[in-house]
Amino acid sequence: MAPRAAYAAPSILSADFADIASAIGRIETAGADWVHLDVMDGHFVPNLTFGPKMVADIRSRTALPLDTHLMVSHPESMAEEFIRAGSDYLTFHIEACTHAHRLVEQIVACGAKPGVSIVPSTPETAIAEIVDIVFQVLVMTVNPGFGGQKLIPACVEKVRRLDALRSERGLDFLIAVDGGINESTAALVREAGADVLVSGSAFFASDHPDREIDMLKGTLRG
Ligand code: DX5
Ligand code: ZN
After folding, report:
1. Which of 13, 89, 138 to mutate to test the pocket of ligand 1 (most atoms within 8 A of CB)?
2. What is the mean predicted confidence (pLDDT) over 67-85?
C-alpha cells in the first residue's frame, strides 16, 4: 500500500510582502493544502511580521485553510482576534503559555482547531498532557524567527518519538514540521512520522512550485 500523502503548507514568510495576493495565487495554483501564516511579535522571537488584518485580507482571497502559527508571548491575549480574522487552525507555543489547557479550550470555543508548537530545545514530554485535545502538534525543526535556516537533525528524532507516543496512546493529532524543509529533508521527516510539511524559502524560491508541492506531499513522479 502506498503511504498516504502529507499535507503541504507553504509559509508566506518568504513571499514578497508587497505582493501577497500573488503569493496566495502561487500557493493555490501549485496545489497546496494549507496556507501557513507566521505571526511574530518581536518578543517571543526576534522578528516581526503581521497581525490579524493580514489574516483577514488573505481570508478574502482564498478558501484554503489558514494555518496561523503564533510565535508570540501571551498568545491567549490574541488568539480570539486571529480566529475572528479567519484562521481555521491556530497554533501557539507551549513555551509562551502557562495555562495551555485553558488556551486550547479557548481556541475550540472560538471555532478554530487548536495546535501546540515546541521549539528545538523543548522535549515532546512538555506537551504530553495536552496532545489528546489538540488538532496538531507543530514541531519546529529550526529555531523560530526566520526563514531559510537549516533543519536541526535532532528534531527529526523528536518527530519519531512523538509519532510513537501517538500510536501508544491511540491518538490522532497531526504532526507538522516547520523549518528547513526542502528536497533533501522532506522524505526524512515524512518517514519519521510528519503529516504536515511547512515550507517557506524552498517553496518560494522554486521555479516549479507545483513540483515543490508534490515533493513535499511525497507524490512526486518521474
Ligand atoms: C520560522 C517559521 C517558518 C518559516 C519556515 O520561524 O515558523 O514557518 O517560514 O521557513 P523555511 O521553510 O525557509 O525554513
Ligand atoms: Zn511557522
Report:
1. 13
2. 98
Whole-number Å distance, alpha carbon 177 to ligand 1 midpoint, is 10
Q: How far away, in angstroms, is 1 Cα from ligand 2 center?
A: 31
The amino acid sitting at 55 is V
Q: For this structure, is 38 an active site residue? A: yes
- Give 2-41 pLDDT, tens digit per residue: 568 999 999 999 999 999 999 999 999 999 999 999 999 9
Ligand 2 being an ion, which residues bring their Cβ within 5 A of it?
38, 69, 178
pTM: 0.98
Query: For 93-149, how does the pLDDT look when each residue is reduced to its tens digit (9 = 90+)?
Result: 999 999 999 999 999 999 999 999 999 999 999 999 999 999 999 999 999 999 999
Asked: is 7-217 a CATH 3.20.20.70 domain? The reply is yes
Centre of ligand 1 to C-alpha 198, Å, is 7
Angstrom distance (rounded) from CA 37 to CA 120:
20
Find cell 496538531 and name the residue: 136
User: CB neighbours of 14 closer than 8 A, spacing ≥ 6?
Assistant: 147, 148, 200, 201, 203, 204, 205
